[in-house]
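FAQ: What does a multi-protein file look like?

Like this. Sequence, then tokens, then the next protein.
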Amino acid sequence: MSQTELSLGAHCGITFAGIKAGSLVNIKRECMGCLKRYVRHFTRRGFKFVVLKAGERMLLYVYNRAQLNKILSNSQVREFLRGQGYEYDTAGQAVAILKGRMRGESFPHEIGVFLDYPLEDVLGFIANNAEGAKFTGYWKVYADEEKKRGLFARYDRCTSRILSRMTGGCSLENIFNSPLGEGAAY
């Protein structure tokens, strides 16, 4: 198993499993060629791979097109993103705007929406300058702490199962080889 495959499993497995719309992973520039087989496999299952930032390491955004389209079509999310300068008809257009903003001077905190963070927590993070969170897990939580703790535990269980299967010799493609492209058991 390559380091690239392990990184994808560890950082994007919850997205491939269908329980989170998008994930980020850093990949060494020289490993980008290794990604081709995973891109082919997961693209057929409705996932998209986008390099958001390039350097010695590449910041790769992996997302489920259908799930992200659903998030971005939510009227509250659309209104929030419009206020951040996003005018889009499709998820692909919104991701292209995000990619452009990643090259800017300041970090685009609205990225949380693209990573399937609840809007209430994205807004809380921005309004509080990243201070005063109830707790921090996969993101800083500002509302509905109990529900988020349960969700984070689910993410942890899923990631643990994926990594256990990978270290046991199962490839990432075989783990997610169901017709729906999702790990229903997770």
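And here is the next protein:
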Amino acid sequence: MMPVISNTTVISNFAAVERLGLLKRRFARLHISDQVFEEIKAGLLQGYAFYANLDRQMFPFSETGWLHLTALNTIDEFQTFGRLTTTLNSGESSCLSIAHHRKWAFLSDDKAARRAGSGLKVPISGTVGVLLSLVRANMIPLTEADMALEEMIQTGYYSPVASLREILSSSKRPRPSEMDEG
């Protein structure tokens, strides 16, 4: 399975309903950029208590952390980051730059970030895609995924569907994401 890097939006949706364990179950290792970590720290200072203790799940702060801090580290990554920051925030820009240059997948629910990622040919998924992949891989039942989605919607997440059943029972099968493999 290809490495995956996540924007703040997906982390926030799962953290807000105390279901980060679902992300961990789907991705034994999930990367976040240094800039996303800064956004998370800023969110904690602004009162988003669901970010508390997130550093305990983060490598290198915790040796057993499954969230891995990842930095921009090549000239190409920094140049792409600089171009992307003209239209996106630094968390989205850094994740997209890393994903593009390292051939990773990207998690985000931000429409502009997803559009930019598509232009860069980066495999993209988001909160609904992660929940669907958990169901399709028989990691959780549909009822649990729908319950998590409903809780996220109640906390302010704008979901394109009210239930994953709408997608799973649809006659139009969504095109499989590279992230759904494995």
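Q: Is there any per-entry metadata?
A: Some entries carry free-text notes. For the entry above: Confidence is low (pLDDT under 50) at residues 171-182.
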